[in-house]
Amino acid sequence: MRHKISLLLFLAACLRVAVAQVESLPPPVVNGNSFEIISNSRYSSHSGFSSALSDTVLSNVLWAMSRVPSLDGSYREFYVATPSNVYLYDPANHVMNVHVAGDRRYRSYSAFEVGIAVERNEEAGLAVQAGLLAGDAFWSRGSGAVASCPMAFAANYANSHWSPNYTINMVDVFGRMSVSGLSDSCVAISSDSTLPRPVTDRADTFEVLLSWLEQDSAFDPAQLPFADVSQLLWAGYGVTPHMPTGKRGLTVPSAVANYYLTRKIYLVRDVGVDRYHNRLPPDTDMATSDHRLEAVTSGDRRDSLRAACPRLPATAPVYIVVCVGDAADDWTMLEPGFVGFQYLMQAHALGLRGRLTAPIAPDERAAIMAALGLPETDRPAIVFAVGEPAAAIVEPRRPENEWLQVARTKEGVRLNVRLAEPGTAKLVVYDLAGRPVRSWGSVRLPAGVHNFEWDGSGDNGTSLPSGPYFGRLYLARMQPSVLTARIDLAR
Asked: CA–CA distance from 248 to each of 242, 245, 253, 285, 426 (Å)?
């Protein structure tokens, strides 16, 4: 009997240790700020932090970094250093598992530090940019308290002190600090009127856009409105009101404000190839602001580009080729990833589809340079294809008299749908991370109003936590469509 009690006590102790090894996180929240105003306002702070940031900020940052598309590497891991431990983040369950015990932060004053380990620096850049914007999304107009900076020295320290399974490419350092906050002031004004002024605040919401972020490879070949092209170019590498170290800041960070991609971004469309500029001629004064195009080659080079890199989507009307000077330099290769995230998010906000092609192999790189007439100093690192969604595979514009609405009830919520014509419908509720949590089987519905009751439980019958969710009603008919509505579940 004594042995049985000892065994039970031992197993209980093991269970307590196992439980202590897992740290739960609060669900991500929706801050309500647009992707554009956050991009226009962001800047990096290197010091002066305090360690007082809420777990909600950490939750949103980790969730955002894990939401970026993979570039088909064999591994991707997120490490978190707090004053307590170093953790390995589990995106599927949104929890942190203790990886190394004890305080191993690079900066003793930081609230937390997040490291990304992937095969390619381009993909690391995608995640780093997502995390930075997720922190800045907590700002308000004119003020903020979440400060951050990607630090290469922190990455070096992490690789020596965090015992990662794979080499950590970069570390985002976060802390609390008074910052200037959100601003929609536009400084990206073309000096020669070759590009219209971009919009620095829109009706979209950063977290909502990110929750549905995905890549596509089938496009309608119709040309894009030029205002959309201008918006994409600005979102990727456009100037902003901030002036770090006397240089005009951009929508993305750059190591020591070196701005490695200056004069190295090219727009490829039906009329020719243009170089994008964000500085006044001759592009050497980094304190200046511009937003213009310079013609490089005339005539349609898109087929030549597709032949040079057959992996590119074949029907995209527009390609943006992001080049670097040194494809072997880690800091340089992070920036195409920063820019790539911006392109994907801005395309999504505009109702467009996009796809990043990376990495670019050396033979593809040389072929692209020859096809587009690029100088030897500009080596393609990422190609972004963008266009309207192909009508054959995604929803067309739905009738104005069709909608999906949400109403609260005593038991939970009621999802009301109005159909202009009959169709087979399937309703799915997703959490903020884009995971399906409750679904109703496909049913044939006539035209008119229909109701779906939801008591807030998942498919397994477990009650789900309060917070934002999204309902999508998929309609299969001659013209398939998708109706979407936000659900605020309250307990």
From this structure: 6, 8, 11, 9, 49
